[in-house]
Amino acid sequence: MNRSIAKLGTTIFEVMSGLARETGAINLGQGFPDAQGPAELLDAAARALRDKSNQYPPMRGLPELRAAIAHYYAAQQGLTLADEEIVVTSGATEALAACIFALLNPGDEIIFVQPLYDAYVPLAELVGAVPKLVSLEPPHWRLPMAAIRAAVTSKTRVILLNSPHNPTGSMISATEFEMLAEICVANDIVLVCDEVWEAMVFDGTRHVSPLAIAALRDRAVKIGSAGKIFSVTGWKVGWLCAAPPLASMIARAHQFLTFTTPPALQWAVAEGLMLPPEWHKAHVQSHADGRARLEQGLRAAGYAVLSSSATWFLHVDLPGSGIHIPDGQFSDRSVREAGVVTIPFSAFYAQDPETRFVRFCFTKPEAMLDEALARLARFRETLVG
Ligand SMILES: Cc1ncc(COP(=O)(O)O)c(C=O)c1O
């Protein structure tokens, strides 16, 4: 068996969602909405399934979807993307795998920032690359620029970042990308930015992509996911955008990973991306309401909620909430004793984990959030009392 695969367990999200199914607990763990997804997209997918081809679409994605991605990023982020700069993938996860497989050789180094999405490090290890880990510092979770600089060696090929960031909700600023550009240019490094949460941004904050920074335009890869933009996480329609030579190189890996993605879903996502900006604004607002409800409820119950600008998640500081057990124990007990699934931050670390924070997903119906809040309030009483 492959050594990197042999040492892997089951991802925390599958474990916790499995526990929720088994115990009937309310699942504020894995990030997915309870709703079916926007009617516009469901109708478009049903129509496409019936009326369009169900055979292999082009390897880089339907031309109509690539055009819609370019349209969406022009409208939302002021980016200009040519058709040959876009590759459609089966979810952002496949785009991440294709980048890592295409850009790294055994022994090459890749810098990751913890806490991190749990697919990153295993993918790098699969190709024999060496993960170099630096950590964000609570409570503001800003990029540790000095630590990143110190982690760069002559073997560094890629810096992989995530903005907006899961699980903290922090975002990389244009100034920080400018600083990263200096590091990348001086050391011939490719910057891969996982931007799956780019649309789920609140409180008037604006998302910045490294592709908007001139010095990074030819050496950055932007990764997106329709699953997050449209709240259809199971669809697994994603993409990457990069200058043509980079996009072509990564497409070579993509062709032997999945080759393509179900055409009906590509058609539907294309239609969705062409919806007017007001539609997208209202869609984000529908999430903002759940966010405010969970934040207020957690605060009222005595939990110390940290500030965040994006994603479907909030996180609390356990000691700040008067709770003096590690995050893993909190999450384990919150399922069994309170009937609420949460995700411990330590699951987002590959080494030296922070154990003070727990993540909650707020994209759930009001009644479900209210019930979860009532249970979490009682649960906190038992922990601090
Ligand atoms: C940071 C990050 N990257 C990638 C993904 C996976 O995206 P997809 O479902 O499109 O593969 C997720 C899903 O939660 C995520 O949070």
Automatic annotation (TrEMBL):
**Which Gene Ontology MF annotations are present?**
kynurenine-oxoglutarate transaminase activity; L-aspartate:2-oxoglutarate aminotransferase activity; pyridoxal phosphate binding
EC category: transferase
User: Which residue numbers delimit the Aminotransferase class I/classII large domain?
Assistant: 25-376
EC id: 2.6.1.1
Write down the required cofactor(s).
Answer: pyridoxal 5'-phosphate
Q: Which GO terms describe its cellular component?
A: cytoplasm
Looking up InterPro entries in the UniProt record yields:
Aminotransferase_I/II_large, Kynurenine-oxoglutarate_AT, PyrdxlP-dep_Trfase, PyrdxlP-dep_Trfase_major, PyrdxlP-dep_Trfase_small
Q: Which UniProt keywords apply?
A: Aminotransferase, Pyridoxal phosphate, Transferase
Please verify whether the record's keywords include rRNA processing.
no
According to UniProt, the reaction catalysed is: L-aspartate + 2-oxoglutarate = oxaloacetate + L-glutamate
Pfam families, sorted = Aminotran_1_2
Q: Which PANTHER family did the record assign?
A: FI04487P
Sequence similarity: Belongs to the class-I pyridoxal-phosphate-dependent aminotransferase family.
Question: Quaternary arrangement and interactors, per the entry?
Answer: Homodimer.
Q: What is this protein called?
A: aspartate transaminase
The organism of origin for this protein: Sphingobium nicotianae
